[in-house]
């Protein structure tokens, strides 16, 4: 294999596939990066068995300055190779692979030789045996993931909860995540109806890496789903992820349908108050913030306390208060994550009792986005 390429274009492709490469893999060859060159372009592949990323540097794009003198493929040590390419002095570089997998990288007066591996031993990418594709708006997909992925569990004792549960039917998409202490549910109406019914769970860490790869100018994301794999297509890049096996629990019954007390706040203002209260609660072992609601006085008060440091109390001004008096305690970190996901909008917070989960919903179109938090017993 022999080729020359624009270094900036190559680095961009290397950074993309490097997201899937881990030094901790149990399969040694997966610490490497696979390069395959043919008449159409240069294909880079990275994988950690859970996710695989393949991106193509097109030969027809003049910005890539890609010239392939000799087709072939090789697996190179990802970390060393990427660092070498980033440090090379000139705008272009040349890559030449000999018969014994020795790889020579030259740029200007600089020349490196590193040992490669036979690409024939690199695991094959998952086969996606379906023609049914789903096209989603890239912006909406990123928003749905960011609003739900923070609620996935990081406990491997219940693997199914480490992912986001997607159900897609006709013209609606619903995404749900829960770690059994909190829950996030987002519903979206799709522009283009889909054929069939889809029900799958994608690992949270796969979605986090995927959304980092979606460029601001990307308009759509296309996905293909099989029994145990999902493929996302983003222009010249393909992102594969395994799906989590098992049945996701029925979360709809966890969401209260009525309330005894409701307060409405500007999400950003309430977030600032909770952040102030958590400055002291974080110094306490149990990390709890308390909220008291007095509908008669139209007053909501927040308390944070650390026996070693001191306490904080702040009277807040809600947009509205209705229902019964209430005192409730919760984890401020869960509340901060929930409030950040709403951005600049008003939220309704609905309570049923001091020990029952409470919900946060936008005051407009509330059913489209629900955050649920389980309170903490303090007595």
Structure notes:
Helix content is 18%, strand content 42%. The relative contact order is 0.11. α1 (7-18) runs antiparallel to α2 and α5 runs antiparallel to α6 (332-340). With 379 residues, the chain is an alpha+beta fold. It contains six helices and 26 strands. The longest helix is centred in the last third of the chain and has 15 residues, at 267-281. The protein is elongated. The termini are far apart. A nine-stranded antiparallel beta sheet has the order 14-11-12-13-26-25-24-18-22. An eight-stranded antiparallel beta sheet has the order 6-2-3-4-17-16-15-10. The protein has a five-stranded antiparallel beta sheet with strand order 5-1-7-8-9. The chain has helices spanning 7-18, 78-87, 138-148, 204-213, 267-281, 332-340, and strands at residues 2-6, 32-38, 41-47, 51-58, 67-70, 72-77, 92-97, 102-107, 110-115, 133-137, 163-169, 172-178, 182-189, 197-203, 220-225, 229-234, 237-242, 261-266, 289-294, 299-306, 310-316, 320-323, 326-330, 346-351, 358-362, 369-373. It has three domains: 2-121, Roll (DNA Polymerase III, Chain A, domain 2); 133-242, DNA Polymerase III, Chain A, domain 2 (Roll), CATH 3.10.150; 255-373, Proliferating Cell Nuclear Antigen (Box). InterPro entries: DNA_clamp_sf, DNA_polIII_beta, DNA_polIII_beta_C, DNA_polIII_beta_cen, DNA_polIII_beta_N. Pfam families: DNA_pol3_beta, DNA_pol3_beta_2, DNA_pol3_beta_3. Belongs to the beta sliding clamp family. Residues 136-250 form the DNA polymerase III beta sliding clamp central domain. GO terms for molecular function: 3'-5' exonuclease activity; DNA binding; DNA-directed DNA polymerase activity.
């Amino acid at each position: 294999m022999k080729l020359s390429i624009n270094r900036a274009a190559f680095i961009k492709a290397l950074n993309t596939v490097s997201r899937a490469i881990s030094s901790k893999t149990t399969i040694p060859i997966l610490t490497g990066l696979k390069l395959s060159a043919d008449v159409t372009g240069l294909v880079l592949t990275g994988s950690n068995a859970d996710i695989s990323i393949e991106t193509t540097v097109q030969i027809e794009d003049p910005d890539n300055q890609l010239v392939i003198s000799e087709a072939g493929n090789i697996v190179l040590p990802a970390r060393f190779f990427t660092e070498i390419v980033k440090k090379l002095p000139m705008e272009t570089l040349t890559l030449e692979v000999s018969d014994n997998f020795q790889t020579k990288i030259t740029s200007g007066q600089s020349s490196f030789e590193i040992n490669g591996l036979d690409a024939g031993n690199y695991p094959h990418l998952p086969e996606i045996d379906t023609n049914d594709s789903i096209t989603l708006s890239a912006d909406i997909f990123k928003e749905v993931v960011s609003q739900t992925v923070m609620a996935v569990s990081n406990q491997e004792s219940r693997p199914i909860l480490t992912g986001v549960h997607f159900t897609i039917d006709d013209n609606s998409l619903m995404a749900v995540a829960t770690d059994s202490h909190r829950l996030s549910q987002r519903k979206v109406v799709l522009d283009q109806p889909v054929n069939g019914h889809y029900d799958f769970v994608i690992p949270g860490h796969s979605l986090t890496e995927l959304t980092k790869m979606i460029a601001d100018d990307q308009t759509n994301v296309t996905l293909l789903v099989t029994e145990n794999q999902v493929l996302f297509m983003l222009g010249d890049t393909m992102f594969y992820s395994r799906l989590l096996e098992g049945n996701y629990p029925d979360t709809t019954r966890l969401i209260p349908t009525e309330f005894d007390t409701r307060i409405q706040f500007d999400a950003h203002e309430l977030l600032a108050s909770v952040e102030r209260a958590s400055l002291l609660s974080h110094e306490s072992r149990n990390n709890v913030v308390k909220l008291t609601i007095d509908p008669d006085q139209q007053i909501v008060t927040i308390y944070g306390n650390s026996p070693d440091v001191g306490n904080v109390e702040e009277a807040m001004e809600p947009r509205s208060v209705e229902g019964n008096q209430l005192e409730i305690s919760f984890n401020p970190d869960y509340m901060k994550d929930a409030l950040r996901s709403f951005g600049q909008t008003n939220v309704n917070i609905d309570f049923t009792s001091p020990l029952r989960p409470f919900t946060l919903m936008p005051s407009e179109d509330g059913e489209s986005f629900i955050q649920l938090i389980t309170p903490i017993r303090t007595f």
